[in-house]
Specification:
This protein has eight helices and 13 strands. With 291 residues, the chain is α/β, with parallel strands linked by helices.
Length: 291
């Protein structure tokens, strides 16, 4: 059974040792270990992906032991497994994060309602209030975490992810960059909709950039989030559409935003919740079940 442990906190010596020792002593096989020391932020971050030999019922006990290490070492530790709740047939729980555009969130919620996407919308979070009505329409709890200028309360966001016990975080046209500490806390579990093709058109204006290059092919990219903005090896799904020469930018954006982006996002999220793909060592790989 695969378990992912992440630890984030102020940099110090000997932070990884008790975590690694505990899982090794229990007989776990370590498939992946990554550690990061961000000197400029004095931030320690660690990801440990293991094959846990003691069964789903023991993950809660492992989590409590990890939390105790966190309390002793001043670390924020999360112990997560997709397999923990399989005996109760719990569907993956999604946090859907938005800013202005409602179409991607609507597409996800409709797909879950119609059982085309086998997941549960646990919560919707916005740094703007624009998508509150979408959440209310589908009976999903809504939280607005932005100030008057849309600047998000990132700590509150993390608290909500924990409060609603989410498995995956979906950035459904959420137009803010997550802090590195948030990325590591939920490493391999954050899925982003980028409204352009990667790697050629990163950033916040991919339609405009492609239009200036006189492109006739546009698209969207669904990728796992790592701290580097729109990095290139984490693509889950990518699709394109083609326009005729002379098509106005406004028409191109309308086609992409209202139709193409939402369908691309649904397929990308489906691949993740159906466990067709996972993020290993910052690269998307096909999932091979363990145990």
């Amino acid at each position: 059974m695969q378990v992912v442990i992440t630890a984030v906190g102020p940099d110090n010596r000997g932070l990884a040792d008790p975590i690694v020792h505990l899982v090794s002593a229990a007989g776990a096989n370590i498939y992946e270990i990554q550690m990061y020391d961000h000197d400029s932020e004095r931030l320690f971050a660690m990801l440990l992906r293991i094959d846990w030999p003691l069964g789903p019922e023991s993950v809660a006990e492992l989590r409590e032991k990890m939390n105790e290490i966190g309390r002793l070492k001043g670390l924020s530790i999360r112990t997560w497994s997709r397999d923990e709740h399989q005996s109760r047939s719990r569907l993956p729980r999604l946090a859907i994060c938005t800013t202005y555009r409602p179409e991607p969130a609507l597409a996800l919620l409709r797909s879950m309602r119609d059982k085309r996407l086998l997941a549960t919308p646990a919560v919707m979070i916005g740094n703007r209030d624009s998508c509150r009505g979408v959440a209310e329409q589908f009976g999903v709890e809504w939280h607005q975490i932005g100030d008057a200028k849309g600047e998000p309360d990132n700590q509150r966001m993390v608290e909500l992810f924990d409060q609603y016990d989410v498995d995956y975080i979906i950035l459904a046209r959420y137009m803010r960059v997550l802090p590195a500490s948030t990325c590591w806390r939920f490493a391999g579990r954050i899925i982003n909709l980028h409204h352009g093709l990667l790697p050629p058109f990163p950033g916040f204006r991919p339609y405009e950039d492609a239009f200036q290059h006189r492109m006739l092919t546009y698209g969207a990219t669904i990728h796992f989030i790592v701290p580097e903005l729109d990095a290139g090896n984490q693509i889950i799904n990518q699709s394109t559409f083609t326009v005729f020469p002379g098509t106005p930018l406004e028409q191109i954006k309308r086609q992409g935003e209202t139709d193409h982006e939402p369908s691309c996002l649904v397929e990308g999220v489906r691949r993740v919740v159906d466990r067709e793909v996972e993020l290993h060592f910052h690269r998307v790989v096909r999932h091979v079940p363990h145990g």
